[in-house]
Write a structure and sequence with these properties.
Largest sheet: 6 strands, mixed
CATH class: Alpha Beta
Bound molecules: flavin mononucleotide
Distance between the termini: 10 Å
Radius of gyration: 15 Å
Shape: globular
Number of helices: 4
Strand content: 25-35%
CATH architecture: 3-Layer(aba) Sandwich
CATH topology: Rossmann fold
Structural class: alpha/beta
Oligomer: single chain
């Protein structure tokens, strides 16, 4: 049987909510960045993080780097993240080759994960907006991820499950 797991890094809970729903759709366990098991027996690793200053959060980058030591070589990886901004043109790319925020984030996650190791990054990815919390209070994007976004996250997990079953 094919084995999968959902891993995430979350400061204020948005990415955790999404991770839980993806795991529900996949019918597998989910773990935060402090509780990552040895991944040797897993076939698919679903990896999530969030955005700070237009980039992957520092904690997120650190945990992705840590995955190198957890036996992810040769595995399939599916990526997801949450961010405060909608998927507009990334302000730091405006003057060069304009790229959407999603592209920039997924590229940076992919770059860390594939450095010096063979990992298959799946084309299936998930992104949604998350509320911006300051001192625990939602200040912007109130209510995100919405119920609809969480349903989409679950559907993303279900889609990955079907794909795994057909492999
Ligand atoms: C200090 C801080 C900086 C942020 N910077 C950005 C940013 O540059 N671009 C963006 O899209 N979202 C930004 N956000 C929003 C977060 O990416 C968003 O709220 C995310 O869903 C948080 O995930 P979490 O609840 O799992 O920690 C920022 C949030 C915080 C707290």
């Amino acid at each position: 049987m094919v084995k999968a797991i959902v891993l995430y890094n979350s400061r204020s809970g948005n990415t955790k909510k999404v991770a839980l729903k993806i795991a529900e759709g996949l019918e597998v366990e989910f773990r935060d960045k402090r509780n990552i098991p040895d991944l040797i027996d897993y076939d698919l690793i679903v990896v999530g993080s969030w955005v700070i200053m237009g980039r992957i959060s520092f904690g997120g980058a650190r945990y992705l780097k840590k995955l190198h030591r957890k036996n992810i070589a040769g595995k399939e990886v599916a990526l997801f993240f949450t961010s405060g901004a909608p998927d507009d043109i990334h302000p730091m790319t405006e003057k060069k080759v304009p790229k959407k925020i999603k592209e920039v984030m997924f590229e940076s996650m992919e770059k860390i994960l594939t450095k010096k190791q063979q990992v298959t990054i799946l084309p299936e990815r998930f992104y949604c907006m998350g509320a911006i919390r300051i001192l625990g209070k939602e200040k912007e994007n109130i209510g995100h991820p919405t119920d609809e976004e969480l349903m989409q996250a679950k559907a993303f997990g279900e889609k990955l499950k079907k794909q795994l079953e057909n492999e």
